[in-house]
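WARN retry 2 of 3 for item q-0093 after timeout on previous attempt; input resubmitted unchanged.
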Amino acid sequence: MVGIGNALVDVIAHASDDFLSAHDLNKGSMTLIETERAVELYAALGTAVEMSGGSAANTMVGVASLGGSACYIGKVNHDDLGDVFGHDMRAVGVPFTGGGIDHDTPTGRCIIVVTPDAERTMNTYLGVSSSLCIDDLDEDAIAGGQVLYMEGYLFDRDDAKAAFRHAAGVAHANGRQVSLTLSDSFCVDRHRDDFRALVDDCVDVLFGNDDELLSLYETDSLDEAIAAVRQRCGLAVITKGAAGCVIATADELIEVAAVPVERVLDTTGAGDLFAAGFLHGLTLGKPLAECGAIGAIAAAEVISHVGPRPLVELRTLLPDG
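OK item q-0093 returned
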């Protein structure tokens, strides 16, 4: 499997509420920030844990944890955090292509300040990750993967949109499947027409939660949204949190239950890991219901602890693991 998305490094530090006040941080929020602010906060944190992040990157790590083969295409700079990202991905068995050199823009990062009450305050700097373009694509990798998986969060600039379409063309020219995650209803609201066109023209497997699908087809009825996507995409997987998921094709609707979790600690990464499980099953030729069940297992593991990546080898949780 080949993933394309934002290559971000999570920088996690523990600090007091006084730190939030001193740096004018809005507790519990996620704020997009620019270069100067990112450099300022990074310097002020002191001791912090740095680890690779990003939605599609989490999915590729999940695929590897399930026993599949995955690689990742993103864009980082040749700086310390860029080195952290590449090292982390390769350490879990996911080869990483970091794009062309851009010395002027730092590697993207999500600066996460955790206060004593466990509240997380996030400031995200997309940095060089958002400038990914056609020239940054590893076409040999795309041609060689069974499935290309693209992250909606990256779908913001015209260069990225062109890169998505080009990557999809390379995949299809080599007989591969193309999948897309809508990522967030905010993304869909901003680029609805482009997302619809991409789904119509290029996407074989679409992932989205119920809110994202409602936004994509501008309706308040999930049944209507599902009916619309069935006419436009061969396979759509709509997640509904604790209510499980709906797998939609032109011919059938399949409902798959979520895996119960005794205590949900952090839902970050649930959709990313669900996609990892579903696509892993798909590449193995499993029935669609079983693909959904594997996705549910992977999602349940990641929401049972803090952090968007599995803490155990997911393959050990599978019935035949």
